[in-house]
Write a structure and sequence with these properties.
Helices cover about 30% and strands about 40% of the residues. The strands form 2 sheets. Strands 1, 2, 3, 4, 5, 6, 7 and 8 form an 8-stranded mixed sheet that branches. A 6-stranded mixed sheet has the order 10-9-14-13-12-11. The chain is α+β, with helices and mostly antiparallel strands.
Length: about 290
């Protein structure tokens, strides 16, 4: 019990200091991602991931597994991996952030050996305020025809930040929101997304380049005529109550074809309505 109280006290103390100092800069997570990329280029995929992993950080291989468990138990991951952050946000107090962007994986010497896609990385600050990799997953798609535009946005310093004094309660709110959204999907996929998508929302689906904006995402869902059922596994929220994440499993049906996926969502709060909206959603196929 004492240990649990100490965790909560240190958590609140760190958050209070961060809010007092003003908003974090999004460059913090972009620089962490760039450093991670360089580390992988220098040391290889295995050692690069182990060097930046949060103690609870996970990858999907294909089910959620701790980064330290997966990479700690393989001899080496072959090939080279390069990526570039193009989309990034950070919470007001800097304890939660994410980046997303294109990647190229190559396990060979020719262009035919290249695999293209987009990644999503979620980062969490440790006790020393250093960002560590909490969640990493991505999608594959054909080589992009156009370069992805950069979208790095700072936290809104004009908005009042309410310190979350109950980190466990904060997590439960996101868990309930994610579950409610999942329960709405079988009733009407389009209606659920209309209700929960941020106007700036991004959608990452295997085989397709990322889509941006409510209209494009809803058009894609309508054209593909897919139905989604999903189950929440876990979630988390920044102590400044402006950014959150969730992840779980999903089953998507299109006609007679049924496929299983892992999903991750980034949530942002609408300060006017105090409602949580989906800023980013990514589905990663589970290979059978």
């Amino acid at each position: 019990m004492k240990k649990k109280l100490l965790v909560v006290i240190s958590f609140i103390s760190y958050a209070a200091i961060a809010v007092a100092q003003g908003p974090a800069q999004v460059s913090k997570v972009v620089e962490a991602e760039d450093s991670f990329n360089k580390l992988v280029a220098r040391k290889g995929i295995k050692d690069g991931f182990l060097a930046v992993a949060d103690p609870e950080g996970i990858v999907f291989k294909p089910r959620p597994i701790k980064i330290t468990d997966f990479y700690g138990n393989i001899e080496k991951q072959p090939g080279t991996l390069q990526w570039q952050p193009k989309f990034a946000r950070i919470s007001f107090n800097g304890d939660l952030a994410f980046t997303a962007g294109p990647y190229i994986y190559q396990n060979g010497k020719t262009d035919d050996d290249k695999v293209y896609g987009d990644y999503v990385s979620i980062w969490r600050a440790d006790a020393e305020n250093k960002l560590k990799l909490l969640i990493d997953l991505g999608i594959q798609h054909p080589e992009a025809e156009q370069e992805t535009p950069v979208d790095f946005k700072e936290p809104d310093a004009t908005k009042k930040v309410t310190l979350n004094k109950d980190p466990f309660g904060g997590k439960n709110i996101i868990l309930l929101t994610d579950k409610y959204f999942n329960n709405s999907l079988p009733i009407s996929t389009l209606a659920a997304y209309k209700e929960y998508l941020s106007p700036e929302g991004r959608y990452y689906f295997p085989g397709f380049e990322p889509m941006t904006g409510t209209d494009k995402i809803l058009k894609f869902l309508s054209n593909e005529a897919i139905t989604i059922t999903a189950e929440t596994i876990s979630a988390g929220r920044s102590t400044s109550n402006d950014l959150a994440y969730s992840y779980g499993r999903a089953r998507i049906k299109k006609g007679n074809i049924v496929s299983d996926y892992n999903y991750a969502r980034i949530w942002e709060v609408d300060n006017a309505s105090h409602k949580w909206n989906i800023l980013l959603e990514v589905f990663s196929a589970i290979e059978k």
